[in-house]
């Protein structure tokens, strides 16, 4: 699930919790909305933490570049 899906879950959950006045006998829409918002927030936090790990910082312009030369000996 990407950022769009997480934000969509949060938005639909908020609409169900705060904007809908339907009263169903078998389903509590306020609770369903709160659960959807919680899942959206958890998914967004997980996505952002994974995205942070994937990002690689390029070396700064003044950084010293180390060249490593490997020598392999085959017998």
Largest sheet: none
**Backbone CA Rg:** 24 Å
What is the structural class? Answer: mainly alpha
Distance between the termini: 51 Å
Strand content: under 5%
Kindly state the mean pLDDT as a whole number?
Answer: 86
Summed up, the helix count is 2
Helix coverage percent: 55-70%
How does the overall form come out from the CA principal axes? elongated
* Low-confidence region ranges: none
Extended strand count: 0
Following the backbone from N to C, one meets helices and strands in this order, namely: HH
Please give the structural blueprint.
Blueprint: H1 3-19, H2 29-54
Helix pairs in contact: 1-2
Can you describe this structure?
There is one protein chain. This protein is mostly helical and 75 residues long. It has 2 helices and no strands. It is elongated. The termini are far apart. 9% of the residues are buried.
